[in-house]
From TrEMBL:
Keyword field contains Zinc: no
HAMAP family: TIM_B
GO biological process terms held by the UniProt record: gluconeogenesis; glyceraldehyde-3-phosphate biosynthetic process; glycerol catabolic process; glycolytic process
Protein name: Triosephosphate isomerase
Pathway assigned in UniProt: Carbohydrate degradation; glycolysis; D-glyceraldehyde 3-phosphate from glycerone phosphate: step 1/1; Carbohydrate biosynthesis; gluconeogenesis
Amino acid sequence: MNNNQNRSPGDVTLDVFTGVISQVFLGKFTAVFPKLFKCQWKTYEGQKKFYADFSTDNSNMSGRKFCVGGNWKLNGDQKSITEICKTLSGASLDPNTEVVIGCPAIYLMFARNLLPCSIGVAGQNAYKVAKGAFTGEISPAMLKDIGAEWVILGHSERRAIFKESDELIAEKAEHALAEGLKVIACIGETLEEREAGKTNEVVARQMCAYAKKVRDWTNVVVAYEPVWAIGTGKTATPDQAQEVHAYLRQWLTENVSKEVAASLRIQYGGSVTAANAKELAKKPDIDGFLVGGASLKPEFIEIINARQ
Ligand SMILES: O=C[C@H](O)COP(=O)(O)O
């Protein structure tokens, strides 16, 4: 029997009032005294559970939570990483935005220990098997072992400089997902391909490779990064980015499912700065950013808060 049937409207109002007051009070208290709360956690797992208990579904109207990744690439040392982590930990970040930091592998554990667990940590690459004779590689199992929850795969620098194929990247994504990591799956066309009118064809080919290996898209975020916009200061205009993001949703509808098309988050990456993030973030199919250079600077906070 439903217990609510014996309750008066007054009881229900009191419950709602008490719930709202306790949530607001706890939210404010943890925001004002973050250090005090951090001290309570003896372990990273404990901290994670605390946040999970008080987390809400902060998605926007589309149902897709805004997600901003910082990709530090091959940058940073203990001193500079300590500074960036300090800035991020002390900043007031939009609670409606999920934040992930892609850190060089050797500093992942260091950064994980400096950042609050509300900020995810990502490897920038991981191999397609758990272990073995693969000198120089790291595996998703290793990333998980040190507390990273994410991995960035298929970045254009891995594709162009390290000659990673669509197939290898998709196999890496398949294995990372099977190991329980969340994947930022990068795609994007070169300037030559854009100028030849091949943008849609290229991103469709890259998506097709992922789709052959990915069965469940829940833990995938796609990052559309036009190669000509990466590190060049030439951002895609909000309309150019929106056009490709909308095409990707159409592609997903036709080739995966309309549920995945509606729920999959698609980030934009390529010379995102505090100056252009707000306009880009207004576009309906842009669900966040993957930020390179600007993620190493204090302006990254403004990019995280672009939807505010
Ligand atoms: O992963 C991030 C992208 O490569 C963008 O880099 P950027 O913001 O420096 O252009």
